[in-house]
Amino acid sequence: MGNPFVHVELQTNDVARAKEFYGALLDWKLEDIPPDGEYTMVHVGEGVGGGMMKCPVPGIPSHWLAYISVADVAATTQKAKELGATVLCDRTEVPGIGWFSVIADPTGAVVAFWECKRPG
Description:
Elements: E1 5-12, H1 15-25, E2 29-33, E3 39-43, E4 50-54, E5 63-69, H2 73-82, E6 86-94, E7 98-104, E8 110-116
Parallel strand pairs: 1-4, 5-8
Antiparallel strand pairs: 1-5, 2-3, 3-4, 6-7, 7-8
């Protein structure tokens, strides 16, 4: 399948409570990275994994954000904008790992795009 969902992230206003809840509810391995716990990776075994972090925008309720793999975040974000999307977060680098952007589609649904950094 082209452009699969590759990551699902919980952006929450209470990371500790979310970790406690999902850790007790599901068989997920939660790993704080870096060790100070600014981000928690969610390892699910099989299937799409994800993460948890403090919601970066004050006043927005806790929510899950799905990431779609794309070859070029900048081009995909621009095309989405041309097709009527609102860019909420333009191309942003995750140092050494890749780039992401976040858009609201014309219906208001929010999704993120992910471009993995290629070795070399």
